[in-house]
Specification:
By secondary structure, this protein is an alpha/beta fold. Strands 2-1-3-4 form a 4-stranded parallel beta sheet, sandwiched between helices. α2 packs across α7.
Length: 229
């Protein structure tokens, strides 16, 4: 159930019954020559939608499609609002949401948002707001590689150009992280890919989506049990 599809009396009724507001947080940034700029946002939104199918008390907010993506500067189409603006956006969004909802869930699918999301959640919790955050994690390629390509094939296959999928930098993330921090993705991969997307399939993407949704549901269940005490 998506918040934007409801009228305000509908939202008020659901909020009074204890609805959780789930906010998908993504990015608009390059994901190699074969994936759309919306990849992170698509994943976050899909996880929230699937959670709402599992739990009728979850309303899905419109996705936050901009974040801290400075590491992808130099690739056409990347739009970054930086760390401070991302943090402030989420803090103010959380404060506003708290006027209606007792519980707020951030689902952030872009690694570059990790710091701003953590700081925003800390500030909101310090203000006695009940906020939880879920950040999907998987083994394998860190960016635009096999896992993200498989996920996008499962979600929006028409947006994936497998004919343009090519291998990028294959070094472990720990090895290239200092170079990424110093010079961004361009310093290690001219095509923007960290990994090898060429063997990805929709079926493995669906498996991964199911696993991530289960992890999200489990975390929310545990959070709600604590809240109920």
């Amino acid at each position: 159930m998506r918040l934007a599809d409801l009228s305000w009396p509908d939202v008020a009724e659901r909020a009074a019954a204890g609805a959780i507001l789930a906010v998908p947080i993504g990015a608009t940034e390059q994901h190699g020559p074969h994936l759309p700029l919306s990849t992170d946002t698509d994943i976050a939104l899909a996880l929230c939608d699937r959670l709402s199918e599992k739990r009728r008390d979850v309303l899905v907010a419109p996705a936050v499609a901009f974040g801290s993506s400075g590491e992808h500067a130099g690739f056409a189409g990347t739009l970054s609002i930086g760390q401070e603006a991302t943090e402030l956006l989420l803090v103010e969004l959380g404060r506003s949401a708290a006027e209606t909802f007792r519980r707020l869930l951030f689902v952030s699918a872009h690694g570059g948002n990790t710091g701003p999301v953590a700081r925003a959640v800390a500030r909101l919790r310090a203000e006695s707001r009940d906020v939880e955050v879920f950040q999907p994690r998987w083994d394998g390629d860190p960016h635009a590689g096999r896992p993200e390509t498989a996920l996008q094939l499962a979600l929006r296959p028409g947006s994936v150009r497998m004919d343009l999928a090519v291998t990028g930098d294959l070094r472990p993330l720990g090895e290239v992280l200092p170079l990424l921090r110093e010079g961004g993705t361009r310093a290690v991969s001219q095509n923007g890919v960290l990994g090898d997307p060429t063997g990805a399939t929709a079926s493995e993407g669906e498996v991964l989506l199911t696993e991530l949704t289960a992890a999200l549901e489990s975390q929310v269940d545990a959070w709600c049990r604590v809240v109920a005490r």
